[in-house]
Amino acid sequence: MLFGSLSTVTLLSLLSFPGLATASVAYCNNQDYESGALGQAPYQTYYAAPYKPVQLNYALPPADCPSNSQVSGYFMFSPLGSDLEMTGGGYIMNPNGTMVYFSSGFGSTVILRGVFTYQGEDHLGIWVNDGSVPVPAGHGSGWNLLLDSSYNVVAKMSVVNFRRVTTSGLTVGADLHELHITTNNTAIITAFPTDETDLSAYGGSEIGYVLNPVAQEIDIATGEAIFTWKALDHVSPSECYAPLGLTATGYGTATDPWDYFHMNSIEKNDDGTYLISSRHCHTLYLVNSNGDILWRMGGKNSNFTMNEGANFTWQHHARFRGSDQLSLFDNGATEWEQDIPYSQGLLLDYDDSAMTVSLSSARAPYNRTNTVSQGSVEFLSNGDSIVGWGAMPYISEHDETGNIIWSTQFAVASSGIASYRSFLKDWTGRPSIPPSMKVTSPFSNNVTVYAWWNGATEITSWELYGSRLITPLKATSLANASKTDFETALVYSGSGYTFYQVAAHNANGEILAYSNFTALDGTTFGPADNQTITAAPLN
């Protein structure tokens, strides 16, 4: 697989100068990968680019593996786990397994939220951990950022030069479980503050402590809270199923509060109501703008009759799908309990007049096992769906009836590596920073330049330029190479040039950006003034 994604120019160079790179397109039903013989989290490397992204393996391959050309868009996911070679960020990847973007540089732990429409334009959402709560705790504290198509944090119309979407009036920052941008340019987020309450009825202390999760809607422009809903004000712990006194649920103390409710998704509807999911209560709550609970679906006090196959437990990622359907990820298990043979992505029909819920379709995992935490279900415009299997490091596509089409993994099943949610999204990115490159000269009269541009989605080819010391700003075209992987090698067999530069081209042959000029000794300077970007701006 070493040469599977490299251009002809690169291949000729590598045949005479083998290196250490193991950058690769996805494997196809690689049994050594699945068994762990390649390690718990196989990864790619490059000759020059300082990244080691996860290596995908199609455990259930598509017909044209590894291309998976029937898929439109990019995989977006954020692996977390101790065995990862590259940690702390989220990925945008081509369906063939090659990396497009790694969201580094924002903080020690970054979760890629997906694509949102904000002020009429597509933005990436990311969550950044502030470090006050360790992520393995099952919740977090931090803030959300919106990035534009150039990966710049969205500017704010004030003295603050970037927008952090975090909580308002609470003692903790925004939690990792939810970010939802509304059509009114507001943000829906979760938070997990600790509050004191009497837990004697549940085997705890009269002076006990719970995680009291909050659903909050924030005006992004001002940072003001529009809506705040605290679980303990509306839902008694007696409604819920997570026992007090487990390592996974907490002991009800100030330093280890009881996670009785565990809010993990919120959606605001066009009628102003909010759909709130409680994993530990096995319930979806419909709440009005005053905070009143209009109905409960599932759990001990369900207002609906749950027909065969429609029950769910320990669920994630609840979303309305029109006026009479909703989807969710039914874990059916936790670290301490298993309710069903394997987890599923569910599409449910509900009737809020007859107050019934029925199963429309279910999506089963490739390996028929339980996901004890996390998970997501996304519906595509053609009726297919993408399921992220959470604590099981898999992503799969399913047809309208739920039949699985393909399944890919980004780590070994038993590795403990997870992605909270996983998506397939359209995205166009053109970074504001210039492309990166490294110049090497393994042989006399033979220069190899490695080029990459983290986050750029429009590149189809690279062009190599050279300039001489006496005329450093006059560049001469030396070579071209198609882009087939994150990093591309360009080879010039000749001499006489002191500085080298690359330009990224799109499918129309237009120039998207120039890199800086770089010499063999690492000396750099900016592009020449007479070098013109010919591609039209994105916005």
Automatic annotation (TrEMBL):
Name of the protein in question: ASST-domain-containing protein
Pfam families documented for this protein: Arylsulfotran_2
Signal peptide per UniProt: 1-23
Residue spans crossing the bilayer: none
Top-level taxon of the source organism: Eukaryota
Keyword Signal: yes
Keywords: Signal
Species this protein is from: Lentinula boryana
